[in-house]
Amino acid sequence: MKVSLVVSVFNEQEVLPLFWKEIQKVGTNWDIEALEVVWVNDGSNDGSLSFVQSILKESHATDKWSHQSIEFSRNFGHEAAMIAGIDYATGDVVVCLDADLQHPPELLPAMLQKHLDGYDIVTMSRKSRTDKRLMQKASALFYRFLNALSDFHFEQNASDFFLISARVADILRKNFRERNRFLRGYVQALGFDKTSLSYDAGTRGAGQSKYHLSSLFSLAVVAIFSFSRKPLYAAMTMSAFFFLFTLGLGGYSFWVYLFGDTPPPGYTSIILFLSVSFTMLFFVLAVLSMYIGKGVEEMQERPIYLVKERLSSKIQNQA
Predict the structure, then answer these.
(1) Which end is more exposed in the chain, N or C (fewer Cβ atoms within 10 Å of the end residue's Cβ)?
(2) Per DSSP, what are the bridge partners of residue 69?
(3) Mean confidence (pLDDT) of the chain
(4) How far apart are CA 194 and CA 123, in angstroms?
C-alpha cells in the first residue's frame, strides 16, 4: 500500500523542521510499502519553499520515500491547497493534514488501520483545542448553525485532518470542482463507509496561526451557501409575512378611515412601515446577491489554483 500525505504550507518555515521530524519518526516505524509526501506551497513568501526543496534533494537515495513539491503562482487559500494535493497524489490512500503540528502525525497509523478495517473515509474530530476561547465558541456556533440550515448533519468539530481512499480521491478530482468549496463537508457528504476518530489538538509547533475569526466567517458563508438553500426559503417566508403584514395594515387603515372616529396616526405609522419594509427588502436582496454571486463565480469556470512549478524527488518533472 502506498500512502500519500498532503501537506498545505503557507509561511511555515519555523515549524516545518519540527513537522518533518515528526513525519520521519512516524514513517520509519510505519508498516507500509511506500510513503509519498505532497508539499503544496500556497504562495509562501518566507523560506518554506527552500526547506521543502532541500528535502526533495536529500530523498533521492531512499526507495521508500518520495516527495512532490507543488508551488502555486500566488496564495489561493487552504482549500485550494488541499484539493491540489489530492489532484497530484498517487497513493492508494490520501491523508490531508496541516504542517503546524495541530494535526498530530502520530495518529496516522491509527487512521490507516481504520482504512484497513474497511473504511473509505476517516474523519478526525477535535475533542479539545488550545486556541482562543472566542475561536472555540465561534467554531461550535458555526457547526450548530450549519447543521440547523443544512439537510445533511455535519460532525461537530470536524477538521481538515482526514483520510480518504483512492476511489474517493478520484471522485474529488473529477467532481465537486466548485470554486467556493468546503472540502471537509464534501468528504462527509460523499457517503461510502465512514468512521471518525477524536484527537486533542495541540499547540502550534512554532510560528503564528494564519487562521483568524474572519477566516472562519468566510468559511461559514461558503459552507452555508454550498450545502443549504434554506436562506432562500427564509427570504421567501419573510417576504410572504411582510406581504400579509402590509395587507393587514392597509386594511386596518382603510377601516379606520371609513368607520373610525379619528384617522390613524400618520407619521409614526409611515416611519415604522418604511423601516420594516426596507429592512426586509435589503435582507432578501442580500441573500439573493450571495447566491447569484456564487453562481456567477462557478459559471466563469476560473481555475481553482495555478501551479507555478512542480518538482518530484522520483520522476524529476516540472510543470
Answers:
(1) C
(2) 39, 311
(3) 79
(4) 8
Q: What is the pLDDT of residue 122?
A: 93
State the amino acid at position 133 in one-letter form: R
Please classify residue 260 by burial: count the beta carbons closer than 10 Å to its beta carbon, then call 0-12 exposed, 13-18 middle and 19+ buried.
exposed
Instruction: Out of 86-95, 183-192, 289-298, give the one with best mean pLDDT.
Output: 86-95
Question: What amino acid is encoded at 17 in this protein?
Answer: P
> Helices (DSSP H) in the chain: which residue ranges?
16-28, 48-58, 78-88, 108-116, 133-149, 166-174, 183-189, 213-227, 230-259, 267-300
d(CA 161, CA 140): 17
CA nearest to 85, candidates 30, 48, 41 = 41
> Domain segments of the chain: what residues?
2-135+153-211+303-312, 230-300
pLDDT of residue 192: 87
pTM of this structure? 0.72
Helices 213-227 and 267-300 cross at an angle (nearest 10°) of 80
Q: Among 38, 41, 39, which Cα is nearest to 74's?
A: 41
DSSP assignment string, 68-127: EEEEESS---HHHHHHHHHHH--SSEEEEEETTSSS-GGGHHHHHHHHHTT-SEEEEEEE
CA 156 vs. chain centroid, Å, equals: 14
pLDDT digit string, tens, across residues 126-135: 876 655 666 6
Return the DSSP state at 67. Answer: E
- CATH code of 2-135+153-211+303-312, in short, is 3.90.550.10
